[in-house]
Amino acid sequence: MKIVIAPDSFKGSLSAFEAASAIETGVLRVLPHAKTVLVPVADDGEGTMESLVGATKGRMVDVSVTGPLGLPVDAAYGVLGDRQTCVIEMASASGLCLVPPEQRNPMVTTTYGTGELIKRALDDGCRRFILAIGGSATNDGGIGMLQALGMKLLDSQGKQVGFGGGEIERIAAIDDRDFDPRINESQFVIASDVQNPLVGPQGASHVFGPQKGATPDMVERLDRCLRRWADLVEAKTGVRLHDRPGAGAAGGIGGAFQAFFPAAMKRGIDIVIEYTQLGQHLQDADLVITGEGTIDFQTASGKTPMGVAQEAQKRGIPVFVLAGSIGPGIDSLYQYGITSIHSILNAPMTLPEAMERAAELLAQAAEQVLRTYLAHPFRVTRS
Question: 285-305 as b/e, with b when 16 or more CB fall inside 10 Å?
Answer without folding.
Answer: bbbbbbbbbebbeebbebbbb
